[in-house]
């Protein structure tokens, strides 16, 4: 599960909640308002790493906010995120497309590719904002030809809402699919609902992912929608969905 669903909660508490609901990993939001942020000291990073391990979990991904095609000093932010992942033992970092300048995005990813290789960290571009479909996100990662280093995070909502059915998302991403975020919404309302209660074809996604090996993470956007149910409610629904398609 992502800690986005428990804003302001210490990572250790989130890890214990995740473990209580059968999770194997924790996706940690990297944000100035949270315990884990860019510039975290080595001592604090070691403490976070230990608390997650003590709960019996792995850190699955760091959910960062750099926009690879957007404005600003993005390369420095990307490097800081990769360094933080290395200090926490996280295998991957999530970033956003954030703009139409694909040439800029490719240039920036290329700039940090040596950092990714040196730290054994994978950069995941989410299907989001300017590149909501698998087909669009693929354009930012495929040119590198290193899916083990630069790949795509499939957010269940955005490709579907942009008109790309799950079958196509799965097919076009192929070996570049590295991570799946399970989430659900109603057809005409962006407010999150527990998996299975909305219009996102999650059963189709489950069938498509049944023989796939990679992290599946619940993203419950309570940081942006504070009025929605507390995290245990969607966690139970996500666990039920996962058990249906991944019985082992």
TrEMBL record:
Residue ranges annotated for the Xylose isomerase-like TIM barrel domain, each copy included: 16-242
Keyword Cytoplasm annotated: no
Parts of the chain that traverse the membrane: none
Keywords: Isomerase
UniProt xrefs under InterPro entries: IolE/XylAMocC-like, Xyl_isomerase-like_sf, Xyl_isomerase-like_TIM-brl
GO terms assigned for molecular function: isomerase activity
PANTHER family: BLR5974 PROTEIN (PTHR12110:SF53), HYDROXYPYRUVATE ISOMERASE (PTHR12110)
Protein name: Sugar phosphate isomerase/epimerase
């Amino acid at each position: 599960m992502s800690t986005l669903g428990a804003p302001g909660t210490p990572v250790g508490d989130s890890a214990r909640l995740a473990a209580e609901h059968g999770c194997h990993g924790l996706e940690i939001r990297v944000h100035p308002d949270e315990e884990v942020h860019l510039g975290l000291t080595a001592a604090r990073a070691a403490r976070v790493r230990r608390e997650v391990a003590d709960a019996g979990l792995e850190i699955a991904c760091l959910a960062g906010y750099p926009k690879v095609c957007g404005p600003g000093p993005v390369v420095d932010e990307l490097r800081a995120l990769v360094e933080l992942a290395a200090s926490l033992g996280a295998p991957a970092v999530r970033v956003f497309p954030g703009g139409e300048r694909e040439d800029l995005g490719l240039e920036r990813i290329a700039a940090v590719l040596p950092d990714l290789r040196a730290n054994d960290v994978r950069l995941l571009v989410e299907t989001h904002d300017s590149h909501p479909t698998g087909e669009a996100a693929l354009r930012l990662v495929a040119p590198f030809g290193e899916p083990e280093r630069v790949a795509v995070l499939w957010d269940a909502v955005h490709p579907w809402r942009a008109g790309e059915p799950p079958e196509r998302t799965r097919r076009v991403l192929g070996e570049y699919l590295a991570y799946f975020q399970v989430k659900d919404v109603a057809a005409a309302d962006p407010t999150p609902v527990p998996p299975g209660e909305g219009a996102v074809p999650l059963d189709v996604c489950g069938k498509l992912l049944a023989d796939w090996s990679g992290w599946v993470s619940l993203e419950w956007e309570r940081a942006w929608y504070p009025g929605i149910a507390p995290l245990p409610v969607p966690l139970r629904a996500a666990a039920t969905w996962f058990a249906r398609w991944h019985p082992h």
